[in-house]
Amino acid sequence: MSNVLWQLSTSHFLALSAVLFTIGVAGALFRRNALIVLMSIELMLNAGNIAILTFARLHHDQSGHGLAMMVIAVAAAEAAVGLAIVVAVFRATRHVNVDRLTALKH
Q1: Residue 99 lies in a domain
Q2: If 24 and its partner were Cys, which of 19, 30, 43, 71 is the partner (CB 3.0–4.6 Å)?
Q3: DSSP 74-96
Q4: Rounded to an integer, what distance in angstroms lies between the CA atom of residue 14 and that of residue 33?
């Protein structure tokens, strides 16, 4: 039984990546809270990292790890800037509902 847990193939990792990406897309499309949308975007970026690292392992290529590190750095910068914007919007409007934000439309 324990031997089955250690025999994970490429398709297992790609299926995990697809499930995480689908959850992220659903969260970004259907939720209206800006914090949930940011977390969903982070989930999609992590799903992409899993797929990148899966293909890097499949092709025995180490450059995929460098690309994944760059995606992690971009995700960290996106989270920092996005959280700062959410805090500024909350201070001004006292809510972070994406549907109610119309200040940038004018």
Answers
A1: no
A2: 43
A3: HHHHHHHHHHHHHHHHHHHHS--
A4: 29
Whole-angstrom distance, CA of residue 33 vs CA of residue 52 = 29
Q: What is the pLDDT of residue 100?
A: 79
The answer as to whether 103 is a domain residue is no
- Asked if residue 102 belongs to a domain, the reply is no
* 3-class secondary structure, 7: coil
Residue 25 domain flag = yes
Q: What is the CATH number of the domain that holds 86?
A: 1.10.287.3510
Render pLDDT for 72-88 as a digit per residue (tens, 0 to 9).
999 999 999 999 988 98
In angstroms, what CA-CA distances link 4 with 7, 31, 65?
5, 37, 27
Under the banding of pLDDT at 50, 70 and 90, the label for residue 5 is low
- What is the SS3 assignment for 5? helix
Q: How many domains does the chain have?
A: 1
* Cβ atoms of residues 34 and 86 within 8 Å: yes
